[in-house]
Amino acid sequence: MSYGNGLGNGFTYMLITQILFFIVTIVLILWFIKSNKQDNTPLQTLNNRLVSGDITKKKYNSLLKTIMNTEEKIK
């Protein structure tokens, strides 16, 4: 039997499979990153920071007043 240059159909299929796997992996990673983005309002962000312990209750109240004043000016 002659195998030509030694890179028969098995190698071709393996190479195509690896390329497709790479493309699918990249697409899934990009989809996962995009789907996890959250468009939080300033109030939601502030609440998340309070719950996580990033800010104190006093700082929360101060920032909450600022947010409310800004929203009133916009309206």
A few lines on this structure:
With 75 residues, the protein is an all-alpha fold. Helices cover 75% and strands 0% of the residues.
Number of domains: 2
Distance between the termini: 82 Å
> Number of DSSP strands?
0
Structural class: mainly alpha
Give the % helix. over 70%
Main sheet: strands, sense, barrel: none
Oligomer: single chain
Which regions are unreliable across 5 or more consecutive residues at pLDDT < 50?
none
Strand content range:
under 5%
Alpha carbon gyration radius: 27 Å
SSE arrangement, N to C = HHH
Instruction: Give the overall shape, derived from the CA principal axes.
Output: rod-shaped
Number of helical regions: 3
How would you describe the overall organization of this protein?
The protein is an all-alpha fold. It has 2 domains: 1-37; 39-75. The chain is 75% helix and 0% strand. The protein has helices spanning 9-35, 42-52, 57-74. It is rod-shaped and about 70 Å long. The relative contact order is 0.07.
Supply the key terms.
3 helices; mainly alpha; 75 residues; single chain; 75% helix
Architecture blueprint of SSEs:
Elements: H1 9-35, H2 42-52, H3 57-74
Helix pairs in contact: 2-3
